[in-house]
Design goal:
This protein has 300 residues and is of the alpha/beta class. Helices cover 39% and strands 13% of the residues. It is built from 10 helices and 8 strands. It has helices at residues 9-15, 19-30, 78-90, 97-104, 108-122, 179-189, 233-250, 255-270, 277-287, 293-298, and strands at 47-48, 53-55, 62-63, 133-141, 157-164, 169-174, 196-200, 214-218. The strands form 2 sheets. The protein has a 5-stranded mixed β-sheet with strand order 6-5-4-7-8, sandwiched between helices. Strand 1 (47-48) and strand 2 form a beta hairpin. The longest helix has 18 residues, at 233-250. It starts with 8 loop residues before the first helix and ends with a helix. The protein binds zinc ion.
Length: 300
């Protein structure tokens, strides 16, 4: 049996190169204690080879291994799903829909939709709190407007991020860099007893300290990048990763979909030392809600 640690492109093809192998694997992930009827929870559910379905002995209900999951609502073979999930979670700088299209030989639309569904599934559902020493910073993402120069921020999207030193990140598109927005983000995403919050000197961060959380700022304007332990270098490294992936892989990301890309980056980053990242991603897909194509193209 495959150890998830050994997942690479070669073992992926070796172990998950066929529909049957992927189905057997998904079955184990979905029902680690044995398959149960989706309708009545009975555990007597023999496999019907011809129909490729389980049939419940008590209620006669027939269901496939992927019934009711995101894997079910396409005609895409499971091994292509596996390959796409692998490519997305392993690509340090992300993978564009165009590259995915070429790599797994599907249409652009299929690749685009697939990548979006995988991203949506990877989204951290529970607000995860960062704690300890946390760096918070904001950045602007988006195109430059001709004649406005590089400093113009009018059509850019604001992303704010928090990173626990040596730990997880959380990233979010926000409407501005005002005090209310930034304080709201910090309160929502950092643990109440966070030891310290380090930011730059942007005035909107002022007043975020409380009795058990100190706040210190480096004065970037005075070319002060670090003061002892106080700096925002780690979150700034995340920004360069984000910008490299947008430039290098996605070319342009609409503000509308930026949040989804942030979720993907967040998942990859927060699982950077998790040997079970691929398996965990598949588990997330198994419980993910379906994301209709129409919703994806009409939501703002
Ligand atoms: Zn049943």
């Amino acid at each position: 049996m495959l150890k998830e640690q050994e997942i690479n492109l070669v073992t992926l093809i070796e172990y998950f190169g066929s529909e049957d192998e992927c189905r057997n694997h998904l079955r184990k992930l979905r029902w680690p204690n044995g398959v149960r009827c989706l309708r009545c929870d009975s555990d007597e559910v023999p496999w019907l080879k011809e129909q490729k379905k389980h049939q419940c002995k008590s209620c006669r209900y027939q269901f496939s291994v992927t019934a009711g999951t995101i894997f079910h609502d396409t005609h895409l073979p499971l091994w292509k799903w596996y390959l796409a999930v692998y490519l997305i979670v392993e690509a340090k700088k992300g993978i564009s829909a165009n590259q995915l299209k070429r790599t797994i030989a599907v249409s652009y639309k299929t690749a685009w939709y697939l990548a979006h569904r995988i991203r949506a599934a990877l989204k951290q559902v529970d607000a995860q709190h960062v704690k300890g020493i946390v760096e918070v910073d904001e950045t602007f993402v988006g195109g430059e407007v001709e004649g406005k120069g590089r400093g113009y921020k009018g059509n850019k999207t604001v992303v704010v991020g928090a990173m626990q030193r040596g730990g997880n990140i959380c990233l979010q598109v926000v409407r501005g860099t005002d005090r209310e927005t930034l304080h709201g983000f910090i309160r929502e995403n950092t643990a109440g007893n966070t030891e310290a919050i380090y930011t730059d000197e942007w005035p909107a961060y002022r007043g975020i300290a409380d009795e058990d959380t100190k706040h210190e700022a480096v004065k970037h304007r005075d070319k002060e990048w670090t003061r002892g332990d106080v700096h925002t270098n780690s979150i700034e490294n995340v920004w360069s990763l984000l910008k490299r992936s947008i430039v290098g892989s996605y070319h342009q990301v609409s503000a509308k979909h930026l949040d989804a890309y942030l979720d993907e980056l967040e998942f990859r980053f927060n699982n950077r030392e998790n040997p079970f990242m691929f398996r965990d991603a598949l588990c997330k897909l198994l419980v993910a809600e379906t994301l209709p194509y129409e919703k994806l193209i009409t939501d703002s």
